[in-house]
Amino acid sequence: MCPLLDTPESFSHSIRHPMFVRQLLALTSISFVILRTVSGQNAPPAQSVEKSNSGPASTAASPAQPQVTFNSVYVEGPYIALTFDDGPAPTLTPKLLDLLAAHHMKATFFVVGQNAADHPDILKRAVREGHEIANHSWSHPNLGKMSDEAVRKELQKTDDAIVAAIGKRPTLMRPPYGSITARQKHWIHEEFGYRIIIWDVDPLDWKRPGPSVVTSRILKETHPGSIVLAHDIHPPTLEAMPSTFDQLDRKGFKSVTVTELLAMAKPPPPKPKPTVTPRAIAAPVASPGAVSTPPATASTPGG
Question: In this structure, are strands 195-197 and 227-231 parallel, antiparallel, or unpaired?
C-alpha cells in the first residue's frame, strides 16, 4: 500500500502535498482519454441532421408544356398565313374568296359567331375552296376582362355555329383585340383543344388608312413564317388586296392556312456566335536618333 495512504492523518497531509496533486491530475486525465477512446469505437456513426427541401438531386424535370400561343413560326420556305377577322360579310367576303382563288392562295377566317350563324353558305364555300375556319368569339368582346363562364359561352356558341355550317369543329381561336390572359389561354386549350393564334403583321387596316398604306405595311413586315392580320369587313381592305396579293406573289410568298403553317414549323437554328478578330498592335516607332533596345524575352517551358 502506498505510504501516503496508511492513515487518515497521512492522507489529509498528503492531499495538500504538491506532488500528490500532480499525480492525481495525471491519473484523472489518462482515465478520461481511455474512456473517450472506448466509447468512440462502440458508438454508431453520426447522422447528418441537414435536410434538403428540394428533394433528391436526381429527380427528373417535368416535361415542357406544349406551345399554345403562336404569332409566327420559323419555316424553311417562303410560306405565310393570311388571316381575316370579323366576317363573314355578305358582300365583301365572297369578293375576297374570288381574289384568293385567282391567286391560288389559302387563308384562315377567324369568324364572329353571329355572322357565321347568319351566313353559313359563305363558310361552306370557303372550306370547299381549301380555306380554314376558326373561332373569333360570338360577339367580339374583350375576353381578357370577362369571367370564365362568359368566355366559355362566347366560344361555345361560335363553335356550335361553325359546326352547324361546315360539319366540323374549329381547332384555332383568336381573341378579339388579341386580349387574353395567360390563365385563359391554358384552360381554353385544355377545354376546347384550341391553339391561340395572334399575329406578327398588323397593317391596322381597321383604322382605314387607305389601300396603298395597307399594302405597303403588309409587304414591309411580312417574312417567311408570318401570320398576317387583316379584316374582311372593311371595303378599303378589300381594295388593298389585289395589289397586296400581286406583290406577295412577286416576292415569292406562298399563303397557306394557319394549321398548315404550324405543321411546317421547325426549331429556329442557333444564332452564330460573333467572331472576334484580334487587332494587330502596331510596333512603337523609335524617335529619330534614338537607339532601339530589343525587349527581354521571357523563357517559356519547352523552349
Answer: unpaired
User: Taking the C-alpha atoms of 185, 188, 192 and 195 in order, what is their torsion angle to the nearest 10 degrees?
Assistant: -10
Q: Point out the residues that are catalytic.
A: 85, 231
d(CA 137, CA 290): 86
For 139: left if phi > 0, alpha if psi spans -120 to 50, otherwise beta; the answer is: alpha
DSSP lists the bridge partners of residue 195 as 172
Beta strands 254-255 and 79-85: pairing type? parallel
Whether the CB-CB separation of 155 and 135 falls below 8 Å is answered with yes
Q: What is the mean pLDDT of residues 212-238?
A: 98
Band (66; pLDDT cuts 50, 70, 90)? confident
Cβ neighbours around 254 below 10 Å, total: 14
Give all domains of the chain, ordered by start, each with its CATH number. Answer: 75-264 (3.20.20.370)
